[in-house]
Amino acid sequence: MTDLTRAYAETLDAADPLAAFRDRFVLDPTVTYLDGNSLGRLPASTAERLRRAVEEEWGAGLIRSWADWMSLSAEVGDLIGTGILGARPGEVIVSDSTTVNLYKLAAAALDARPGRRVVVIDDDNFPTDLYVFQGLAAQRGLELRIVHTDLDAGLDPGALRAAVDTDVALVSLSHVAYRSGALVDMAAITRIAHDAGALTLWDLSHAAGSVPVPLSAAGADLAVGCTYKYLNGGPGAPAFLYVRSELQAALRQPIWGWFGQADQFTMGARYDPVPGIERFTVGTPSVLATYAVAEGARIVAEAGIGRLRAKGMALTSYLIELADAVLAPLGFSVASPRDAERRGAHVSLHHPAAWQVCQALLHRNVVPDFRTPDRLRLGPAPLYTRFTEVWEGVDRMRAIVAAGEHERYPA
User: Fold this and answer.
1) Catalytic residues
2) DSSP 8-state code for residue 13
3) 128 and 272 fall within a common domain
4) What sign does the dihedral 24-25-27-31 (CA atoms) show?
5) What is the number of structural domains in the chain?
6) Regions of the chain where pLDDT drops below 70
């Protein structure tokens, strides 16, 4: 039986090997923040790095600073790829948004499998992924083969295997489900796709910085992800994309821009893409935002994905134990895999009044988020969240629902 006291949570914090990383972030001690899987905290170093970029590089250096800025997207991509994602140098670059990157890589993959007209996705994939593939299907006359996924338990590999045949060009899934946090076996899914001659495209938005992502070890082909969640790059931060080295020269993405052009400053009239990862970029990168991504990603890489995974499993297991003990009698149920090996770093709780509970928690300075249908999603980011914050969040939720405070908010 879990010790339900705050004192026990304090003993867990005292033994936390990542505790010192909390001091590397801007904190408001009055807020219990349990939404790091939506927007990561601000690293304390980011403001100073941006000040230098603005005042010294832009303000004083002006256009001369492009000598440093031109390679920034690839440098930060390598930091993310080799330090966090299990990729090799030259396989990850910071570019555009997750949605734009998904479109670019999906179109390139489909062109690389001519004669195959089927894309396999699942019905619990993130909505923007579904929309991108709906658009591609409408443009190209493709079949979208949609595999059903249990909202709480996650994807059944057997159901996916049954959907993949030699008509399939591409299989695209999320490594960690945005709603439930369910984690899929990247290597097993990739084998299923490759056995049928299909390519894989992974959305790593809820995985990068929270769980090991074995891109190279799994033989994954393509991937995209955002940097403003566990990588703490800030709101609207540019995304990243991954292309396995062996595929780069053979793939041509659909948006031909001058930052993907060989001999860029010869200003040639015909498009001739560079051979490496830069061919998947388009236009002028967001320099200031990429510096912010670098600050957040550097801290994640320093902490180490192994230690972050261990703490993420511990935090979410503790949250589930508390929820079973004190929230289940109030109508809550766990809507995420209970096996820590099968979930990422966030947990969803089902309650028929989840939206109202979320509003009441925000009023009490506890920050979760709401996801349909009737899910309260809690993301204790392992880099900076304390066990006492998990305890506080659950305790305030218990008090709110027991007192009926949430009933003040209309459904």
Assistant:
1) 126, 203, 228-229, 377
2) H
3) yes
4) negative
5) 2
6) 1
